Amino acid sequence: MSEETSHQDAYGAFVSRVALGPQDGPTVAIKDCLDIEGMVTRCGSQALADAAPASAHADVVMNLLSAGCRIVGKTKMHELAYGVTGLNRFEGTPVNPAFPDRIPGGSSSGSAVAVAAGLVDFAIGTDTGGSIRQPAICCGVIGFKPTFGRVSRKGALPAQSSLDCIGPFARTLSMIERAMGAIDPSFQAETFNGPLHIGRLLLDDTVEPRMAEAMLAVEAGEDGVIEEIDLPLLAEAFKAGMTIIARETLAANAALLERPELLGEDVRKRLEAARSVTDADMAAAEDIRARFTADVDALLGRFDLLMTPALPLPPPLLSEAGEPAKVLTLTHYLRPFNLSGHPALVLPAATSDGLPSGIQLVAVKGADARLIAMARRLAETNPLFQMEE
């Protein structure tokens, strides 16, 4: 075992190692729900461990290789991408580098850990209900969910989703841009020099005051303006997202319930509970999707950015991860923008007592490059983010 492999294994980020692409390309880790030709796409589940190897690379893997990137490994994840803690009893749980007693976040846990530990230049995850942005904040890195449909999902599991997006983790915004250019050949980085007009979400009682500190401390910069906004359907959008992900995840994995002993208890219970989702529930969720999306679109007609806290609560301790009250609302501010499909980015910060926190920024659909440019402007003028470029 090489020294490099031993060092990387110390964090438990990788489920397998590969060596694809040029030696001098930026190093990349891939979440194990994306196909690499010749490898089994296990999705963190014992139930898929004996599946046939992938017959072709996922589109995103092909794009990375075409862009000259070097793929060095597949990363661990919450089983079937259906959980927010990152805990995995089959493959083991990656270690949050800065906060080893706390969850790494899910479902793209290993990708977040690999970036936070400095093991790769950037990593690729998937985000169906916050699964890039939430582990990014837990581990103190940047996470970006592109506009829904922007990045090809061919070769991703589940094959069908109305919520899921493939996107990057990185330690700098410049590397987020480089990653986006690699996974989406149409992406062109932009600059933003004008004044920022930001809509800052009015807070409800779901957020702990210290988790709102970063958002409330942000200044818009020269000639910029921050105004308070409301999203009255936010809580309903969160619930609608939970309804839709339940129906769609069950549709993709129902056959696995025939051998329930191969599933982790948390995922098995969620899949079984998803059987109770009715067509009427789905219709109501789609109605909320349409109405919430319209509300967000209307606000983004007035503002360059919408800003929310990233998480309502600090990342739970590993010992607390089985307590529903500690985990159920972690994606309160993130999941609604999977429902609406808008691009969203999180910038990490710290609470006054040193715990992981940060902000979420949301922009007009399709304005992915502009969102990253605006995030850079905020990061440059607000030292609480301590971004290095």
TrEMBL record:
SUPFAM superfamilies reported in the protein's UniProt record: Amidase signature (AS) enzymes
Keyword entries, A-Z: Hydrolase
Keyword Protein biosynthesis attached: no
Any one GO molecular-function label of the UniProt entry: amidase activity
Span of domain Amidase: 20-371
Superkingdom, natural source: Bacteria
Family stated for the protein in its record: Belongs to the amidase family.
Function in brief: Hydrolyzes indole-3-acetamide (IAM) into indole-3-acetic acid (IAA).
Protein name: Indoleacetamide hydrolase
